[in-house]
Amino acid sequence: MLVVTPQQKLLQRQLQPKDGTAGIERPKALLEALPEDPEPLLALASRHMVSSRQFDRATLIQLFRLAAQYESTPQLMHLPLTGKILISAFYEPSTRTRLSFESAWHRLGGAIMSITDPKSTGIAKGESLADIAEMFNNYGDVIVLRSSEDQAVYQMLDSLRIPIVNAGNGIDEHPTQALADLYTIAKWRPSLFRGNVDAGDRIRVGIIGVPSRMRTVRSLLLLLACFPEAIDEVVIVSNESEAFNEHQREELEQAGLRLRVVNELDPVLPELDVVYINAIAWVGDSFESMGSGLHLTRESPLKPGAIILHPLARGEELATDLDDTPHNWYFAQARGAVFVRMALLTSVVRRISAVMDTPEQ
Ligand code: CP
User: Fold this and answer.
1) How far is ligand 1, taken at its centre, from the CA of residue 274, in Å?
2) 1 pLDDT higher than 80
3) Is 239 in the pocket of ligand 1 (CB under 6 A)?
4) Which of 15, 213, 285, 286 has the fewest CB atoms inside 10 Å of its own CB, making it the most exposed?
5) Radius of gyration for the chain, computed over Cα atoms and rounded to the nearest angstrom
């Protein structure tokens, strides 16, 4: 009889393709739930996209609808960006944002010039961002910029005649990550985005992170504020005194979001439908010192049916033993980022008429 060793069994398991993760089968339901309207996407033509504040509910719904179309029927793509050039300028490390933007652009048929090290450009010789932006006008059709400096994207705006998309600027904003986050929620529960949500169907969202200092959290809250009727409450797990910047909380509450700040996670976990956890990487501040109580594991008291989102990269705050549970929607979130970025890029470079029925056709 042939003996199979434990090592051989492990290798067989590792070589087996994975079945996928929760949430990747859902774009069709979202597509069917939302009526098509090209107008909000036509209005994004040639616009710089730097902040979540630039989005309204109609635009978000149409971006998610087009993203769902791209995700559910990739064979129907007509390579609408053929002949267009993306300048992908990442002055700070990135796995997901750069590769998903570049994947999105490739899938749409465009060509890419990629900068992954600012020292390979004039920045190393002291060239200003305004002058670099002036040069970018000559070489591409749209720029995607990631920088650790809050002001970098704003320093380029005055010189630019081509649109720029903010792919994360310091601790300020990460609006396209927030699009990916909300697109995931839209696929999980399309009914939340149709308006007139019954009180009993509203969701409670938990955010483990500091809105005043985390770009992903800041941008996500601004997008959630476009759908206050779908959200019973947003529970922020953070140190109360540093949770919000001046005026940040007022802005969100004026838009209709109900906010509560708590400093312990486990007591609120059983109430949460969506749990958004961020990397806990703030060295030497109180959020890091709270960190030991901010871990999600298979043993955490999660509500049955709750989904976990994380912009990734993760640290110890999100245990890998959750990966093969139905709570794991964070991998679907990273996957969906490709399609929602495709929808945004198609809009910004004025190619909506190539993928939707529009009045001028
Ligand atoms: N979510 C996110 O911004 O990841 P990267 O830093 O890898 O781009």
Assistant:
1) 20
2) no
3) no
4) 15
5) 21
In whole angstroms, what is the distance from residue 293 CA to residue 290 CA? Answer: 6
Centre of ligand 1 from the C-alpha of residue 56, in Å: 24
Distance of alpha carbon 71 from alpha carbon 28, whole angstroms: 8
DSSP codes of every residue in 254-299: HTT--EEEES-STTTGGG-SEEEE-----TTSHHHHHGGG--B-TT
- Tell me 328's DSSP state: B
Identity (one letter) of the amino acid at 299? E
Taken as a whole, the chain contains a residue count of: 361
Residue 92 Cα, ligand 1 centroid: separation in angstroms? 10
Q: Reduced to 3 states, what is the DSSP secondary structure of residue 166?
A: strand
The string of pLDDT tens digits covering residues 198-232 is 999 999 999 999 999 999 999 999 999 999 999 99
Name the packing angle between helices 330-348 and 57-72 (round to 10°): 110
Protein residue with least CA distance to atom 3, ligand 1: 97
